[in-house]
Amino acid sequence: MPTNGTDDHIAAVRTFNRFYTRKLGVLDQHLGKSPFSLSEARVLYELAHRDDLAAKEIGNELGLDPGYLSRIVQGFDEKGLITRKPLPADRRQYQLSLTAKGRQAFAKLNLGSQNEVAAMLAPLSAGDAARLTQAMATIEDVLEPRRSQPAAFMLRSHRVGDMGWVISRQAAAYAADYNWDISYEALVAKICAQFIENYDPAREHCWIAEANGEPIGSIFLVKATDEIAKLRLLQVEKKARGLGVGRALVEQCIQGARERGYSRMTLWTQSILVAARGIYQSAGFRLVATEPHHSFGQDLVGETWERDL
């Protein structure tokens, strides 16, 4: 037996496992009010978060019996939730993708799960909620180290005080890096105020990147139309650049738009923001329009980028 596997350690892990299983059962009770079993919900989650997955990949990652997975996939197909196309390398295997109906079904299921977690966290203070999520991150890092990630950071939803941080850091960063004047701070303040005043969690969201309890980046998903989502105010602190924070925020924003039922995503940026443009391009956005303008005390070239979801 490993030296760390003492009786006290084993008992502590088993006690926590029983506690967590009870909590997990409470959080999954909403599945009883939906047409999906827990396994079906897990498959929906994988399909909603990754493009063109092979059925075999899902089975391997979720540990599902091939026959059972086949029945789930067949049921999804009959309900019009997925599309299937043979893999070019092995036509016996299929790539699976959610249809618009499938994404709507997942969005409803996901919103129920979010509400359950929100209800569990509601009695906690901001400090206790931060301690809880940091403890969860520690458990993940210890039991399954992420070798591909050079530094640990997490993405969380906005809370009281974050809008002030976003306004301050956006204004200071662009003034320091690009000599933009205070009119940019006014624009960011207006965007943040409108976001809070009109916030609809079913259609919009803000994510804050955080490391060691300190904000290091942010991004906003807002409604442009019923079908089109807008990505706004991507920003990463200089000390956190190169860690993959910007890419993680953009990917989360894209996924958030999918989960909320949008079919397209758009954003407006400037040609001089080379790092951000690179992230957008690698995330599947394409440049569709440019327009010279004078804003924030500078001559700039505005760019509109779009991608389908």
Automatic annotation (TrEMBL):
<dbReference type="GO" id="GO:0008080">
    <property type="term" value="F:N-acetyltransferase activity"/>
</dbReference>
<feature type="domain" description="HTH marR-type">
    <location>
        <begin position="6"/>
        <end position="141"/>
    </location>
</feature>
<dbReference type="GO" id="GO:0003700">
    <property type="term" value="F:DNA-binding transcription factor activity"/>
</dbReference>
<protein>
    <submittedName>
        <fullName>MarR family transcriptional regulator</fullName>
    </submittedName>
</protein>
<dbReference type="InterPro" id="IPR000182">
    <property type="entry name" value="GNAT_dom"/>
</dbReference>
<keyword id="KW-0808">Transferase</keyword>
<dbReference type="Pfam" id="PF00583">
    <property type="entry name" value="Acetyltransf_1"/>
</dbReference>
<feature type="domain" description="N-acetyltransferase">
    <location>
        <begin position="166"/>
        <end position="309"/>
    </location>
</feature>
<dbReference type="InterPro" id="IPR000835">
    <property type="entry name" value="HTH_MarR-typ"/>
</dbReference>
<dbReference type="InterPro" id="IPR036388">
    <property type="entry name" value="WH-like_DNA-bd_sf"/>
</dbReference>
<dbReference type="InterPro" id="IPR050769">
    <property type="entry name" value="NAT_camello-type"/>
</dbReference>
<dbReference type="Pfam" id="PF12802">
    <property type="entry name" value="MarR_2"/>
</dbReference>
<dbReference type="InterPro" id="IPR036390">
    <property type="entry name" value="WH_DNA-bd_sf"/>
</dbReference>
<dbReference type="InterPro" id="IPR016181">
    <property type="entry name" value="Acyl_CoA_acyltransferase"/>
</dbReference>
